[in-house]
Structures are given as structure tokens and as C-alpha cells.
Write a structure and sequence with these properties.
The complex is a heterodimer of chains A (433) and B (757). Chain A is mainly beta and 433 residues long. Chain A has 3 helices and 36 strands. The chains are: A mainly beta (433), B alpha+beta (757). Chain B: Required for maturation of ribosomal RNAs and formation of the large ribosomal subunit.
């Protein structure tokens, strides 16, 4: 322990507490530590304390919280900046550092990976610029290929994540269509199965940018360059007459398995430019971001927008989550990830701004279970993990060689990402309590 | 006796002056005055009776210590014996008797005081007294106040008794005999001896001398000081308003207003008439201008005279310095420089060297002629003659204040300022870019012969068309439903189907680009262009007779103009895609065309030649054309504001002109910003932005606000210099994103950059 040999002028009495389980616990004694110690020093102190009890302990990085704020400078500076007295015994909470501990082998694609989705813990969905969607049961093993699109896939979404035999997946593409696929993820992974869409959703007049599925229901919404958000039914056939007429035309073109076409149930009009991203977090609420510099919240029942946040920059991505699933995070044509709290009255200014990226932000996702954690992917090739309790990124995943086009959480402890280097990257072992 | 010489005339004047003062004194009922009043009566005879005073309340009397007794001496000389200096007869007894009465009080009076006043105020005081007394005679009705005078002759001139031995009659009718006249010398001596003489007044009416009391002297002193005569009088007593200000119920008089109140006064009218006549005749003159004395300081130093220099712009020349000790023919030794000093002078610069080196001469005779005399006087004359000693009118203005007040760049956001995205893939210099009307894609052409279509959002290259020649121009069709790309290279113009858009749109597009039924060309254009099917990509190509330098789509997406720089009069043709035919311009073009533009909303057509821009009306070919004189050496590019009234022209000398076509045919602003050729200029479709790019590998972004109000000129503010392209070859093209405030720049370094806000 290098603390002992340091020439220490000031010492602080601290007590380490944690909510972690037994192997991570330290005795609740207060210890005297030098005041100029940083996070690394604190981490090594805690590690050595645990190691003294448990000889098989492997060193584990920790993050430290004082009064709900992460320490990102030396302890002395932190106390000065926050105006916390150093006289009394300081209570420092430690959590396992949010950083990937393992990097899986990249899963190679034929073209840029434009979309990833990790909603299901059983598999990963990816969309690619070659027009194929892929299902990966684990790193490097592609179980299904979703084919049919003539243009690049821009977004993929898992429609119903219930544990039924088959799962339904929606893909959106630059060929102005959405396709719905059904497959059985429990099939053997020895050979890659090709899956054709059971339903094609036509109606957008321009490239479809994003697709999102209703949490519990059979609807998907999609956003497009034609400035609209369309809502679709995912049923095999919504109404008899429609599906008949469609089948007739389809029969002429392809003449094989029953591929139905669907039309938009309704269209949410309001954005004046390309709607770049949609999310459907609740039953009747849709959030959308657009290149017209706004984030809107739509009421599905009425088809009106109930919230309109103006940002000033063209936005590429939006996600809703955090505390009470109410915070809106959005990123776009500048390196700043903004987080709004629409519950805060009287202001449309972002409550958090994270600006460590150096290029456009292409994706941002909230962690499904944590209120504080979110990730952002940027064209600078980096994925950053953020905690609302500090303005510095928790960790930077810099595994891509080119632009990162999409990223998502998977299984709560992994980050999956796809980029212009045609690889799906999985960084796992992220400890988020 | 000098005192006697004072003339009687003088006395009279003084008397009249002091009437008021003397009159006022009468109200003061003082026993002391009794004797005085007697004397006054005598004086009155001389000065004539002024009976029109009322005694005023001001208790002023003449009894003052500064009373000049000498004066009275002279006075009675004058009255009794005329102006002659004859001996004065005194009735000594009377005077003495009077004196006795007052003796006790007089003792206290200071001699010094009296003498001091004597010289100053003697005359006036004397006269005061004189006039005062006659009032006393008339006025006083109380027995206390008035002691009946001894003499009863009344108000008769005393001259009548001049030759008599008596001066009048007393109350019993007995003659009052004149006192025996003293010898002048004796009387003078007596006056000299008597210390109280200054206080004595001769009363010639009663022929006696009166001596003033101390109180009287004090009174006079106070009057002289300008104070109230009595010490117990309070001039600043609180004002008691006796008048009842409340409105009385009844008027003072119930008499009706007399008629005269309402008619103009006849007499006043007469008086006015008289004055008017006098003025007309010129008897009365008004406002006679006062003549100012025209004098000035003749020998004054004119260089310092402010008065003159204030008005004149001429500055008088400075006077020559007067010779000092140095110039003396025999100065003191300390003025003579030593040999070392003289040697050091030689080492100095000519300007620093002293002009005159003092020398010593034993006598004036040995002084030689001054060697510089002619030179110096010549120089002085030159100075006087040639130096323009004129005050220059220079306006003192802070140069900062002359700068136009430009709004802050922060207020003009958004504008492109930082590059986040690059579009890489070309292997040669990117010469041209074009944005799709929706802003989703851009197309670019390069010297490597490839045309690429990019996705703006991700920087993904979606399509590549490879050709053999370097691409000169690419242009998206402005219609979103007709996704056709016009590509010019060499002599060929290709229409490429980008295969974007919905199926129906694709059908229309394919129909348009169907090369099966190309009509026979008209004879007039057959020599210029040929429509051919494009075997390579299945579209149409148009072969021109000269190489194409610039193309521009009409806003409706059907017509396309191509410019052949070396085509001279046939250098500009219009292609119609829907009919697949070509036509020449319905008018003749003067000069070599450089580029052309369609007006964004009207049927005007802009043709830029090397030096100027001409505006033609396509629908009315006969209409007079408008010529915009740029004043530039060689135009390279132009762009039009979406409003259609403002045109931006870039030139190969790095200058940019902003034309406000409503304002004038001369440039509204000429901006010299680039050190090298401007390759292209661009105007944003919706944001008030315009940009220029240049071979110096920078792009400039400007704020160019055009107001609807015709009175307000466009506002042009330079915003940002966009750098980033490598220095070789520079930036060859720039285009704005149609919907975002973003700028695409195409560099000779084969990279396209997107600058975002």
C-alpha cells in the first residue's frame, strides 16, 4: 500500500460503506487516509482492505460516491469544491466501477452495421447496410438472417419480447418499407437460417429512419425522411379486405409464401424535417426526435404532440429513461448529449449536458434498470458510459475503428455496438447494481 | 480763506438734491432742532422756497458730526455779499449765545471723526440742512418743536438788509442789529483756536452761530453710512399686514363704471399721433447702431493674440529668436567651447550639431561678416513665403466609431462553424457537389471521373458512377419527385437516374430518361448539340460541340441550361428534358459566358460574362436587358438569393460582389476576402447565410439578411472562416444544406466536408 510511504500532511478519517454483497463488503471501521488521494488510490485502499480478509480476492476497480456524487478528482479538491467539512468522519460509498471488463470477439458483417438491438437477453439483433438483418445468439454466432430489404436497414426493433416460441422483429429500411419477421430463437445455431418477412409495411414516401415497438401490444411506429411518424399493426392481417387486395398484387410479383402488406394505421404529422428517431416507452406515448431541432412527445390516442422541446441542433437519436422513465436524452449534429427533464416546469433547457465526444452523436440509450446510467455512441468511434452523478464519462469504449452508428445495452451488463467498420462489438462485464 | 471760495451755484445744486432727505428729517420732533430751523429759514431765502414737501416719517436731520461748518461759512458769504469775497459781518453775540446752549453736548464729539468727514461730505450735508429747515418752518405746528425765530421779517431776501445796520425785527418790533463783523484774520484765528468750530453753523437769517449737538452729529453720521438716522429704528421690523384680504361683501363704491373707462382716450391718441408724425418725419430715430471703437494693439505680439487667431485660419509666423549671450561678440568665457567640445561637435550628426559656435572678439571692429547672414535671411524669407501657415480643419473622429456597427456573431446563429463529418472515397479532387432537395443525399463529381452519391447523415457513399473524364458539374434536379442527376464532363451532359424515390416516381423518371424516341433535332441547334442514348448507365447524354463549363437547372426541373465557355455566341443553350430537345437562347449574348442562373421565381435568366452580368427575360426576348456592372476582372461564379433580388458574384481575384438589383446595377457591397480565386459562391435557401470558397482552401460564411422593407439595405456580416482542407488546390465547391445551416465544401484534397452549426 503506497499510502504509507507518502509524505502526508493531512489525513482524513473516512468510513467505507457499500450496498454490495458480502465479498465486496469491508469492515465498518473508519480509516485515516491522505487527503490528496484520488479514485485510484481509494480503489486500491478498498481492494487491500478486502484482500486482507479474503486472500483469494482479485483486484476490482471501484467508484466512490460522497453525498450521491461520484468522485472524479482528488478527495481534497472534491471536498473543497463541494464545501464538505473534512473534520468529521467522512462516509464514502463505493460501487463497482462501471466499465467493461471483457471485450468479446467482433461479429463481422458484410457492410456497415447501422442498427443493433439488445432488447432480448437471448439474442442480439443487428441491421446492416447490405439490407439484411441478423440475429446473433452470442458473439460471432449468427443464427438467423432476416432478408428482403432492397435498401440499407436503418433500425431494428423487437416487437414482442414475451417468452413465446417465436419472436417478432420489425426492421426499417432506406427502401421506404418496414418488414416484420418471425423466427424461433431457440433453433439450433449450427446453421444460419434465412427468414423472410411475413409482412411488409409500405406507406412512407422516403427512407425510414427508425422503428420502435409498443411495449405491450402489437403496434410499431416508424419515423421517416418524409417528416411523418407512422403507426402500424403487426398482426398477420388487420382487415380482411385489405389483406386480400394486397395478396393479389403480391402474388403477381413474387408468387410464393404468404407475404402480406400493411398500411399505416395512423400518421403523426408535425415535424417539419426528417424524423430521425422514435421510441415508444409507454402504452400511448411516443417520443420522437427530428432534424427540425425538436424532440416531441406524442399522444397516440389523439395523435397530437403534447410536448415540444427545442434544441437548436438537428437530432439523430432520442431515448427515454432514467428516474421514473421520464428523462429524455437526445443527441445529434453536435458532440453534446443532452438530457431533459420534462417534469421540470417552466423551462425547456436541458438539465444535463455531456460533452466529451468530438463528433456527432449517433445513438444514446438509457440503462433499463438503473436511473443514472446511459450510453452514447458517436461518429468519433467511441461509446461513452455516463452517470448522471458526474459530468465525466464513466468509461470510454474505443473498440471501433470508424464511426459508431448504433449502440445498445444487452442483458443489463453488456454494451453492443455496430459501426462503419462492419463489426458488432460486445463489451460485457459492466457492473451496474 | 479757501473755504469761502466755494460758489453759491454749487450750493444750490446740492440743495435741490437733498430736498427729500431734509424734508424727512422734519418729522423728528427734537428740541435740538429749534435753533437749526431758524438758520434754515435764512438759507431758504437764498435757495428759494420749496414748500412742496411734507414731512416724511423718516427721521433724518442734518445734525451730524461731519457737518461742514466751513462750508456754511462760504455759503453765507455768497448769499449775503454775492460772490465777492468781501468781509463777512458777524453778529457774534447770537452765535455765541447759540453755542452756549449746546456747549455741554458738543464736547463729546470727536474731532477726528469730524475732520475725516469734512473733506468728503461737507457740501452735501450743508445743503441738506438748508433745505430741511424751511420745512421746519412751515410744517411744525407743535410749540415744542418750534421755537419762533428771532427775526420776524419773514421770507424776504436778506440782500434787502445788506446795507442796513439791522437784519430785521424781533417779535417786539425792535431792530435786530447786525453783529459787528470781525476782522477776517481774527475770525479765522478764532475758528482755528476753537476746537468746536467745525460744529458751528452760521445762521445768517438770525445773524447768529449755531452749534450742533452730539445727537445731531450722530444722526448725520448714520445718514452718511446709509443707515436709518435713529439707532432705535428697526428697518427690518416684521411686516404687519393691516389690510383685510377677505372679500368684503359690499363694494367700496356702487357707482357704475364711468363711460370713460370704455372709450379710448382722445388725448392719448393725440399724443400717439404726434409721436407717429415725428417718427415719420424722421425726428425720432431708433436703434442708432453703436459704433465700436476700431482699435487694436498695434505693437502686440500677433502670434499670441487669441482674438485674431480665433477667427483667422492664418497662423502668424513665429518671431525670430533674439540673440542671447552666445551671440555676443565678447561673451563670457564659459560660453566659449573648448577645443575638445569643438572636436566633439564634428563627430555629431549635422542635425545635432549646434548652429552657432560662440567666439570672442576683442572689439566690435574685429568682428567679421557673419557667414550665414545671407543663408539665414533667405531661409527665413523662404519660411515666410512658402510655409502654408493655415489652420487645417481636421475633424477629430475616433476611427473606431466610423466602423459600421455589426451585430454580434452570437446573435446571428446558427451558422456553420465546425466540421464533424467528412465524405471520403474520391481519389481525385472533388470539383463539384450538389445537394438533393430534401437534404438527405449529396452528389459529388471528381477529377477521377467518378460521380458519387452520399448519405448526408452518415457519410456513407451509396452509389458510384464511373466515367472516363473528369467531372465538371453535377446538379440534382430541383424536383424531389424527379431524382435525376445532371452530370457534365467534357463535351457530354449525362442525366443519371439515382433510383431514389418511390416506385411511381421511379416510373416517371425512367420514362423521362427513356432514350428510345429522341426527336430529330432542329436545324438551328443541330450543330451545337446532339441527344444520344447513354449506353453506360441507361440514361440520356447530350453531346455538345464544345466542352461544358457550367450547368443550372430551372426551378421546375424541366429546363437545364449549359454553358460552353468557348462557345462564344452559341455558348449558352437550354435543354428541355421532357421533350428531349434543345433550344438556343432567344437573344444574343455579348462576351464569353461564364455561368448562368435561372431566377428563383420569375422568368429572368442571368448570364455572367467575364466582366459583368446580364439579366434577360426569357419570356420577352425583346425586352431590354439589364446589365450589372461588377467592376471585377474575371467572374468565376454566381449565386442568387432565394428572394431573387440579390445576386452574389464571385471573381477570380478573390472579390465577391453583392448586388441588390432593386437598388442599383452597381454592387451594393464588394467584399475582398480571399487572397486567391473564388471558386464558388453559395446562398442558403432558407437561412440568411451565404458562403464563398476559394483556392486558398478556406471557405467564408457570411450572414446576408435581406429585409422585406425596401428602405432597409441588406445586412452583411462576416461570420466564420472555415478551414480544414489541405492547402493544395483549395476548396473547389461549396453548397449549403437545403434545410439545415450546414455547408458542404469540396476540396481538391478529394474530401468533402460538412460544416455544422
Amino acid at each position: 500500500m503506497d499510502v504509507d510511504r507518502e509524505d502526508v500532511s493531512r489525513r482524513l478519517h473516512v468510513k467505507f460503506v457499500t450496498k454490495l454483497d458480502s465479498p465486496f463488503k469491508v469492515p465498518a471501521n473508519s480509516v485515516a487516509i491522505p487527503s490528496n488521494v484520488t479514485r485510484l488510490g481509494l480503489s486500491s485502499i478498498v481492494n487491500s482492505i478486502i484482500e486482507s480478509d479474503n486472500p483469494e480476492w482479485k483486484t476490482e476497480p471501484f467508484d466512490f460516491l460522497i453525498d450521491g456524487e461520484l468522485i472524479r478528482m482528488s478527495l481534497e479538491e472534491f471536498l473543497l469544491a463541494k464545501g464538505i467539512s473534512a473534520e468529521r468522519t467522512l462516509e464514502i460509498e463505493y460501487i463497482r466501477a462501471v466499465t467493461p471488463r471483457k471485450e468479446e470477439e467482433p461479429s463481422l458483417h458484410d457492410d456497415w452495421v447501422s442498427a443493433v438491438n439488445g432488447s432480448s437477453p437471448r439474442f442480439i439483433l443487428t441491421g446492416c447496410y447490405d439490407g439484411l438483418g441478423r440475429v446473433w445468439s452470442s458473439a460471432g454466432s449468427c443464427s438467423h438472417i432476416l432478408e428482403g430489404h432492397s435498401g440499407a436497414i436503418s433500425s431494428v426493433a423487437l416487437v414482442n419480447s414475451n417468452d413465446a416460441e417465436t419472436v417478432t422483429v420489425a426492421t426499417s429500411s432506406k427502401d421506404r418499407t418496414l418488414r416484420l419477421f418471425k423466427f424461433d430463437p431457440t433453433e439450433s445455431v449450427d446453421s444460419t437460417t434465412k427468414v423472410r418477412a411475413y409482412k411488409i409495411l409500405r406507406g412512407h414516401k422516403a427512407s425510414v429512419q427508425s422503428v420502435s415497438a409498443q411495449k405491450s401490444g402489437n403496434m410499431v411506429c416508424s419515423s421517416s425522411w418524409d417528416c411523418t411518424i407512422n403507426l402500424w399493426n403487426t398482426n398477420e392481417s388487420t382487415s380482411e379486405g385489405e389483406s386480400v387486395s394486397v395478396k393479389k398484387r403480391k402474388g403477381n410479383n413474387q408468387g410464393e409464401e404468404s407475404q402480406s402488406e400493411g398500411e399505416a394505421v395512423t400518421s403523426l404529422v408535425g415535424h417539419t424535417q426528417c424524423v430521425s428517431s422514435v421510441v415508444w416507452p409507454e402504452y400511448d406515448v411516443i417520443y420522437s426526435s427530428s432534424w427540425d431541432h425538436s424532440v416531441r412527445r406524442w399522444d397516440v390516442e389523439t395523435g397530437k404532440d403534447s410536448l415540444n422541446l427545442f434544441c437548436g441542433k438537428a437530432l439523430n437519436t432520442v431515448d427515454v429513461g432514467g428516474e421514473g422513465s421520464a428523462l429524455i436524452a437526445a443527441g445529434g449534429s453536435d458532440p453534446i448529449l443532452r438530457v431533459w427533464d420534462p417534469r421540470k416546469p417552466g423551462t425547456s433547457a436541458p438539465v444535463f449536458q455531456f460533452s466529451s465526444h468530438s463528433s456527432w452523436i449517433s445513438a444514446c440509450k438509457w440503462h433499463k434498470s438503473s436511473w443514472f446510467h446511459l450510453l452514447s455512441a458517436s461518429y468519433d468511434g467511441k461509446i461513452m458510459l455516463w452517470d448522471l452523478r458526474t459530468a465525466w464519462p464513466l468509461s470510454v469504449i474505443d473498440t471501433h475503428n470508424d464511426k459508431v452508428l448504433s449502440a445498445d445495452w444487452w442483458k443489463g451488463e453488456s454494451v453492443i455496438s455496430g459501426g462503419a467498420d462492419s463489426k458488432l462489438r460486445i463489451s460485457s462485464g459492466i457492473a451496474i447494481s | 480763506m479757501t473755504k469761502k471760495k466755494k460758489g453759491a451755484n454749487e450750493d444750490k445744486i446740492i440743495e435741490t438734491k437733498s430736498k427729500t432727505v431734509s424734508g424727512k428729517s422734519q418729522k423728528q420732533k427734537k428740541p435740538v432742532e429749534i435753533e437749526e430751523s431758524l438758520k434754515e429759514e435764512d438759507l431758504l431765502q437764498e435757495s428759494g422756497t420749496d414748500s412742496d414737501y411734507d414731512g416724511d416719517s423718516l427721521p433724518e436731520s442734518l445734525d451730524s458730526d461731519d457737518f461742514d461748518s466751513d462750508f456754511f461759512d462760504s455759503e453765507y458769504d455768497g448769499t449775503q455779499e454775492g460772490t465777492e469775497d468781501g468781509d463777512v459781518e458777524f453778529s457774534e453775540d447770537d452765535v455765541l449765545g447759540n453755542l452756549l446752549e449746546h456747549e455741554g453736548s458738543i464736547d463729546n464729539v470727536d474731532d477726528e471723526e469730524s475732520e475725516q468727514v469734512e473733506s468728503d461730505n461737507g457740501e452735501e450735508d450743508g445743503s441738506d440742512e438748508g433745505s430741511e429747515r424751511d420745512e421746519a418752518v412751515e410744517e411744525s405746528d407743535s410749540s415744542e418743536d418750534e421755537v419762533p425765530s428771532r427775526n420776524t421779517v419773514g421770507d424776504v431776501p436778506l440782500e434787502w438788509y445788506k446795507d442796513e445796520k439791522h437784519i430785521g425785527y424781533d417779535i417786539t418790533g425792535k431792530k435786530i442789529t447786525k453783529k459787528e463783523k470781525q476782522d477776517k484774520l481774527d475770525s479765522f484765528l478764532a475758528t482755528m483756536d476753537d476746537s468746536k468750530n467745525w460744529r458751528k453753523i452760521y445762521d445768517e437769517y438770525n445773524d447768529e452761530e449755531v452749534e450742533l449737538t452730539k445727537e445731531e452729529c450722530n444722526l448725520m453720521r448714520r445718514i452718511l453710512k446709509g443707515e436709518a438716522p435713529h439707532a432705535d429704528f428697526d428697518p427690518y421690523a416684521p411686516y404687519v399686514d393691516w389690510f383685510k384680504w377677505d372679500d368684503s361683501i359690499h363694494p367700496l363704491s356702487s357707482a357704475p363704471e364711468p363711460k370713460r373707462r370704455f372709450i379710448p382716450s382722445k388725448w392719448e391718441a393725440k399724443k400717439v399721433l404726434k409721436l407717429v408724425r415725428a417718427i415719420r418725419k424722421g425726428l425720432i430715430k431708433f436703434d442708432k447702431p453703436e459704433e465700436e471703437p476700431n482699435v487694436y494693439l498695434l505693437w502686440g505680439d500677433d502670434s499670441t493674440s487669441d482674438q485674431k487667431s480665433k477667427h483667422l485660419t492664418y497662423i502668424p509666423p513665429p518671431k525670430l529668436k533674439l540673440p542671447g549671450h552666445d551671440e555676443s561678440y565678447n561673451p563670457s568665457l564659459e560660453y566659449i567651447p573648448t577645443e575638445e567640445e569643438k572636436a566633439s561637435y564634428e563627430l555629431m550628426y549635422e542635425e545635432d550639431r549646434p548652429k552657432f559656435i560662440p567666439k570672442r572678439f576683442t572689439s566690435l571692429r574685429s568682428i567679421p561678416a557673419y557667414e550665414n547672414a545671407l543663408k539665414e535671411s533667405f531661409e527665413r524669407c523662404l519660411d515666410l513665403y512658402l510655409c502654408p501657415r493655415v489652420r487645417k480643419k481636421r475633424i477629430n473622429i475616433d476611427p473606431e466609431s466610423l466602423k459600421p456597427k455589426l451585430p454580434s456573431r452570437k446573435d446571428l446563429r446558427p451558422y456553420p462553424n465546425s466540421c464533424y463529418l467528412e465524405y471520403k472515397g474520391h481519389t481525385g479532387a472533388v470539383t463539384t457537389i450538389s445537394t438533393d432537395s430534401s437534404g438527405e443525399w449529396i452528389a459529388s463529381g471528381s477529377t477521377d471521373g467518378s460521380v458519387r452519391m452520399w448519405e448526408v447523415e452518415t457519410g456513407r457513399c451509396l452509389k458510384v458512377w464511373q466515367f472516363d473524364e473528369a467531372i465538371m458539374c453535377v446538379a440534382w434536379n430541383p424536383l424531389s419527385r424527379l431524382p435525376v442527376l445532371a452530370v457534365a464532363m467534357g463535351r457530354d451532359l449525362f442525366f443519371l437516374n439515382t433510383e431514389l424515390g418511390t416506385d411511381e416516381e421511379q416510373e416517371i423518371t425512367k420514362e423521362r430518361l427513356h432514350s428510345g424516341n429522341i426527336p430529330e433535332p432542329e436545324a438551328s441547334v443541330a450543330a451545337i448539340v446532339t441527344w444520344l442514348p447513354d449506353e453506360l448507365y441507361g440514361g440520356i447524354k447530350i453531346r455538345h460541340f464544345k466542352s461544358i463549363s457550367s450547368i443550372d437547372w430551372h426551378r421546375k426541373g424541366d429546363y437545364l441550361s449549359t454553358v460552353m465557355a468557348s462557345g462564344e455566341t452559341r455558348g449558352v443553350v437550354l435543354h428541355q428534358l421532357s421533350k428531349q430537345k434543345t433550344q438556343r437562347l432567344p437573344f444574343k449574348i455579348r462576351g464569353l459566358p461564364v455561368c448562368t442562373l435561372f431566377h428563383p421565381s420569375l422568368s429572368y435568366f442571368f448570364v455572367a460574362t467575364r466582366k459583368d452580368v446580364r439579366v434577360y427575360n426569357l419570356l420577352k426576348p425583346g425586352e431590354a436587358t439589364k446589365k450589372l456592372e461588377t467592376g471585377l476582372r474575371e467572374i468565376s461564379s454566381m449565386a442568387i438569393h432565394p428572394g431573387g433580388d440579390n445576386l452574389i458574384v464571385g471573381s477570380k481575384e478573390g472579390k465577391m460582389c453583392w448586388f441588390d438589383m432593386d437598388l442599383s446595377s452597381k454592387p451594393y457591397k464588394t467584399l475582398k476576402n480571399h487572397p486567391k480565386d473564388i471558386t464558388n459562391v453559395a446562398v442558403h435557401r432558407s437561412y440568411p447565410l451565404f458562403a464563398s470558397c476559394s483556392e486558398d482552401s478556406t471557405a467564408y460564411v457570411f450572414h446576408g439578411m435581406v429585409y422585406n422593407d425596401l428602405n432597409q439595405n441588406p445586412l452583411i456580416v462576416p461570420l466564420e472562416i472555415l478551414r480544414g482542407h489541405s492547402s493544395k488546390g483549395g476548396v473547389l465547391d461549396c453548397k449549403f444544406h437545403p434545410r439545415q445551416p450546414w455547408l458542404f465544401t469540396a476540396g481538391a484534397d478529394s474530401i468533402i466536408k460538412l460544416y455544422c452549426h
